[in-house]
Design brief:
Largest sheet: 6 strands, antiparallel
Distance between the termini: 42 Å
Number of helices: 13
Shape: globular
Low-confidence stretches: none
Radius of gyration: 21 Å
Bound molecules: adenosine monophosphate, glycine
CATH class of the domain at 7-104: Alpha Beta
Mean pLDDT: 95
CATH architecture of the domain at 7-104: 3-Layer(aba) Sandwich
Number of strands: 23
Strand content: 25-35%
Structural class: alpha+beta
Length: 429
């Protein structure tokens, strides 16, 4: 039986992902009051924003108690990796409050690349061959690189804000970068260990799984576009656009993903006693006709959430209650058969230096798309830019091409100084 009690819900985070969470939760008959901390200009319109640093757990506790929150939905990885769920469980005032997101031990799947690789190997889940090296093993790292063919893949073990992966064509350059990571702490503490991996050649996609720790449900697939430049060139970003579903992931391929990757992942969490109630984001690469795992994230993707959640027809709070109460098996996910796309509008200069505080004009004229605010905030009742990724323009269509056309048309109505977006999202499909 599903609970029907209405709830007060707090979403932690401030990006497009959290606006999409809030947008979906706000539609639920089971939520009677919604808070987002710290939120952005988009969440301000549908929820109460509360300024807080999401890593300041004692202030989060005050907010939760002051507002009689029943459930906390954690958007970004940092608070999970730092143990916000464990913090709630250990505090007698908070232990009854539902937290959506894994406990610290399980969050290491994203917090440590070495931990993730060991998990993948232990549970025989297909992934790239690898070895990991610490500071006093630089020479051994060079030797391992010599046994590999280019390109060389170096990954800082810890969280490095999406910047910790280097892919290099030249052996000497790879050795030099390995030395910088290990010895000169190129990525700070995150690169005190480095995973060196076999390069996998293929097309990437992501799948999203909900789990209550026992049962799982699979959300629609999505593909994001990480590079800043058209044709997938230039620096890595948080994501410049996304498409769902992924057209090349047919039923047979999805079946392989479920059998070879999702089931052993859930069983692995149970076997290893890693407590997990939340979202698992599995980054995959299709090599030939087979899926292999590139990475785990212990949260939803951004901008993938902005195309995945709009396609979910269920009452989202009912689904979240299923996760919290370990009754996910009683829920049938209903997915909109239409395609959804999103295009990220970013500040000129991003992902390097960019200016903030630019007024965003024209959002009120959007009728055919859903503009999810990301790096945008309210200043004297005006919406201004406050980050690199500013707005994710989501649209539906019978095909992804039709949805993309709508997103691009809606973008024409919006403007801010030095606005940039990729004009080729979906080009490779
Ligand atoms: P990660 O942070 O592990 O997802 O890596 C960032 C990006 O690097 C991925 O999205 C891939 O594009 C690329 N990448 C990571 N590992 C590999 C690999 N073993 N082979 C090829 N590309 C990779
Ligand atoms: N869009 C990739 C991520 O959220 O990590």
């Amino acid at each position: 039986m599903l609970q029907t009690k209405t709830m007060k819900i707090l979403v932690l985070g401030s990006g497009g992902r959290e606006h999409a969470f809030a947008w979906k939760i706000a539609q639920s008959k089971l939520c009677d009051k919604l808070f987002v901390a710290p939120g952005n200009s988009g969440t301000a319109g549908i929820a109460e924003n509360i300024p807080v640093n999401v890593l300041d757990f004692s202030t989060v506790k005050e907010i939760v108690l002051d507002n009689k929150i029943d459930m906390v939905v954690v958007g970004p990885e940092d608070p999970l990796v730092q143990g916000i769920h464990d913090f709630f469980l250990k505090d007698k005032d908070l232990s009854h409050i539902h937290v959506i997101g894994p406990q610290k031990a399980a969050a290491q799947l994203e917090g440590s690349k070495e931990f993730a690789k060991e998990f993948l190997y232990r549970h025989h889940i297909p992934t790239a061959a690898y070895q990991s090296f610490s500071r006093d093993e630089v020479e051994a790292g060079y030797k391992f690189l010599e046994t590999l063919k280019p390109p060389y893949v170096l990954k800082a073990d810890g969280l490095a804000a999406g910047k910790g992966v280097l892919i290099l064509n030249d052996l000497n350059e790879a050795k030099e970068e390995l030395r910088k990571m290990l010895v000169e702490s190129k990525f700070g503490k995150a690169s005190s260990k480095v995973v060196i991996e076999e390069f996998l050649d293929g097309i990437e996609l992501s799948c999203f799984v909900l789990t209550d720790g026992k049962n799982y449900k699979i959300l629609p697939t999505a593909k994001d576009y990480k590079r800043i430049g058209e044709g997938d060139t230039g620096l890595n970003t948080g994501g410049m656009g996304a498409v769902s579903p992924v057209p090349f992931a047919d039923a047979e391929f999805l079946d392989k993903i479920e059998e070879r990757i999702i089931k052993p992942t859930i069983n692995g969490l149970i076997k290893d006693k890693l407590p997990y109630k939340g979202f698992i984001f599995i980054g995959l690469i299709k090599v030939g006709n087979d899926p292999k795992v590139i990475e785990y994230n212990v949260r939803m993707g951004d901008p993938e959430t902005e195309v995945v959640l709009p396609r979910l027809k269920n009452d989202f709070v009912e689904v979240l209650q299923g996760i919290a109460n370990e009754t996910l098996d009683s829920i049938n996910l209903e997915i909109d058969s239409r395609a959804a796309t999103t295009i990220m509008m970013v500040s000129g200069g991003y992902p390097e230096a960019y200016e903030k505080g630019k007024e965003i004009k024209g959002l009120e004229n959007i009728t055919d798309s859903i503009p999810f605010h990301a790096g945008a905030r309210l200043e004297n009742d005006e919406v201004v830019t406050s980050g690199g990724r500013v707005v994710a323009m989501t649209s539906f269509g019978n095909t992804y091409e039709e949805a993309l056309k709508k997103s691009y048309k809606s973008l024409e109505k919006v403007h801010f100084d030095k606005m940039y977006f990729r004009k080729d999202i979906g080009f490779d499909l």
